[in-house]
Known about the structure:
35% helix
Amino acid sequence: MCKLSIVTINYNNLCGLKKTYKSIASQSFHDYEWIVVDGGSTDGSEKFIREHRSETAWWCSEKDGGIYNAQNKGITHAQGEYVLFLNSGDSLLSSDTIEIYFL
């Protein structure tokens, strides 16, 4: 089991998804899994997720019932001790934000 599950939900926000990915990938803390729930985007988000699937613990791109349905879908697949919702477009303050939290 990992320490942290980071759940990112996305719908037609490729630019925001890339921003969130960069923020997560730059973290000095690595005991996490990244779960991406995409609502069936048509803007290239699914292609981006597929290109980075080796960095995700689980992902899907399919129609859902909205924000809370997508978040609950992410929780269902989370294996971490803690869950952090970092939605597409969100970013962490710095590259050591998560590490500072777990110190």
